[in-house]
Design brief:
Chain lengths: ~230, ~525
Amino acid sequence: MAQEEISFTDLIASSIHDMKNSLNLQVSALEGIARQSRDKGDLALFQDLGRVIYQSNRMNLNLVELLSLYKLSKSIYPLDITEQSVAEVIEEAVMQNQSMMDFKGIVVSVDCAPDCYWYMDRELVKGVLVNALNNAFHYTRDQIHILARLQDKHLELRVEDNGAGYPERMLVNPDLASEHGVSFETGSTGLGFYFCEQVARLHKNGRKRGALAIENGGSLGGGCFVLRLP
Amino acid sequence: MALTLRNASVLVIDDFQGMRTMLRDFVRSMGVSTIDTASSGKDAIAQLNANRYDIVICDYNLGPGPNGQQVLEEARLKNLIGVATVWAMVTAEKTPEMVMGAAEVRPDDYLLKPINQVVLETRLSRLIARKHVLAPIEASVKSLNYSDAIAQCDQQLKARVAYPQEILRVKSDLLLAVGEHGAASALFESILAERDVPWAQTGLGKIHFHARQFGQAKEIFQQVLREHTVYMEASDWLAKSCNRMGDTQEAEQVLLEAVKISPNSPSRQKILGQTAYRNGSLDVAQTAFEKTIKIGEFSPHKAPAAYTGLARVLADRDAPYEALKTLALSKLEFKYNTEAAIQTGATESAVYQQMGQSERAESVMADVEKLLEKAAGRVSPEASLEVARALFALGMKERACTLLQDVVRNNHENLEVSESIETLFKDLGMHAEGQALIAQSSGEVVAINNQGVTLAKGGDLLGGANLLRSASAKLPSNEVILINLCGLLIALLSKEGKNHRIASEARELLDRVRVINLGNKNYHVYRAALNRIMGGR
């Protein structure tokens, strides 16, 4: 029985490996075509490609989240909470989504001290940030601000936008975010929020655990996604 | 000239042509002009043999043949890459092997797909910057200049370098390697005062282990694993602790859990096989040995123990022909390796004996003995024990005991060795006899050693040295005798001035000690002293 489970994990992992290769090539090729179209001045094509790339990025994100959650549920995720440069983690999350931000003309700004180090699983937290950026991409008008600061022995990571903010009912009951079900229109299956919650919960220091919050307001007056790590 | 991304020579290794081209194009767009590509592990090793690279970007999955980790291990082992080479391993998902402490040979970083050009360029630039800090330390470690490496770590820490924890970690490993357990312990405690960091906790456990406080060590490793289930290093040390406490059933359970999480480490699978075999869990042992052979196929570190282990399991399961077939494979695999031939031959003899073919068993053993003679005592304890076990099976008890006496004498302070000899006797129902043999043989060496040291302390340096010289001729692998003799020679040199003949004798002793135990505490001290006396490095 155990043997079968292991091979199933291997099968999933190798399929995802293959799919990620394809997606990686696809996005890379699309980015190349997009650059050419922009240089030729074909802005309509440029923006169309932006939407396609956005969808490819989401697919990739979903694959990563699914595989991570599967492994977490089986207690075989290699959780590795080590000291990381927070600025570097943020920078990489931003770079991963840079091209799609460019298509929509969204400006992403970061406020993080270069010597800010904190304990985290680099890949999982980067996954949460990419998720938050994807969300903000969808709801913002044209700005996203990422803020990292240390507050009473926690690291607070905020992803803020200048969109209309979260609806009131979600702020009252944040569980709705993970329970409001599948909506292809907004591209929400609840998977992303569930993933982020799990990641927050897995970050422990002594008795303290990480937490997730959503707010409205912040420096840009829109929605704010907040991850706090002990 | 300091390395920059632009003037670097780069090797891209990926079996998937699309990815290979993409990565090469990324690197080319960064302004790099020297780029080679390889499409398989074999191809990569050929390229690494032919050229020196500053940066290697290597996919972990490389299809049939060696994987990325094995290519890296071979490159390190054969010095195909230098300490300044940046090795970035590309993977599709996070694996337990990526967690610190899981593998001895590690790439400088792991890159998770998807990769785009900006991410790759930023990562590579950062890795180059980090190399500027770490390469000099690694160079000292590589030339076994541990005290120098520790001093460099301290310098970097004082300069408030980025990633201070990484340097602290390197420093703690070095302190453990040179036996500075007090300083290592203080370092771990200072980190743990801030938060429970698994590597620092595990480090404390190792210190207890080395002090033979296996119970305390075990508790710490268990605690680490409760919080960090996939921290394989703690799990391997937990199994070791259980084994040393005689709780081999628990060790088997721990290892079984570990291979479920991280199945691809040949050494872990091999230890599971050996532990399970001792416990009589033949199913588990067979699977583990088979897996060891399979995943080790392309590893530069592969060894015959998995084959001999599997052969013993098969023989016990009444499949002697399968056992012999496995041993034949081992012979083929390790054709020009005397030690492997000894180990394989010993097992082969035992299998024939089990089959009732005593004559055949004896003739194989005769060949093994010839090889042993040729090796002149420089055989690993592991292989010698395998021979002794086979000799016992043949009823050649006296010969087995003589061999084991030699092993004890050559390793009289190595508790792990004497414990495995004790276990061997215990399994044969000769526990008391084994204990007596160990006590007597190690007592003899202790007496000679003490006599030599006493002479030297009384001022007769040459007399002491001569005594240890004749002892070392009989015990060519006894670390304590070798290092003490070296100490006496250095004392002679500093008393009577430079003497090139004695200095080269001392150097040769140091080289032998290094082969036996890299972590010998006096090795580093004596090496430095010798260099000081003779001038130069």
